[in-house]
Amino acid sequence: MQSRNPILDNVGKAMTEAVGAADGVRREAETVFRSQMQRFISEQDMVPREEFEAVKEMAARARDEVEALKARVESLEKQGGKPVKK
To answer: Which of 26, 41, 63, 82 would suit a FRET pair with 7, their CA atoms being 20 to 30 Å apart?
Structure first.
């Protein structure tokens, strides 16, 4: 035969409510932390990832172009052109 113990029922309810409240506090803390980090990053003049990747790609293309131009200058110099002052 099972009997319900009102003390255990109340403890169970209190624990369930405490877990719910703790979860709410955790979500609120995450929200506050996330907004503080976003504010900190924006104040530090950090570059967004997309902009960084775009500039990185531009630099790679510029480097490739410089290497191609160097090879072209060397080829022209070998063909009898004047050496270019550096």
So the answer is: 26
Give the residue extent of every domain in the chain: 1-46, 47-86
Compute the C-alpha angle 46/52/43, nearest 5°: 10
Extract the tokens encoding 3.
């009997």
Question: What share of residues in the chain are helix, strand, coil (percent, to 5)?
Answer: 80, 0, 20
- DSSP 8-state secondary structure symbol assigned to residue 13: H
Residue 65 contacts residue 58 (beta carbons within 8 Å): no
CB-based contact 83:77 (threshold 8 Å): yes
Amino acid residing at 68: A
Using one digit for the tens of pLDDT, what is the confidence trace for 36-59?
A: 998 888 888 778 899 999 999 999
Q: Please indicate, yes or no, whether the overall pTM of this predicted structure exceeds 0.70.
A: no
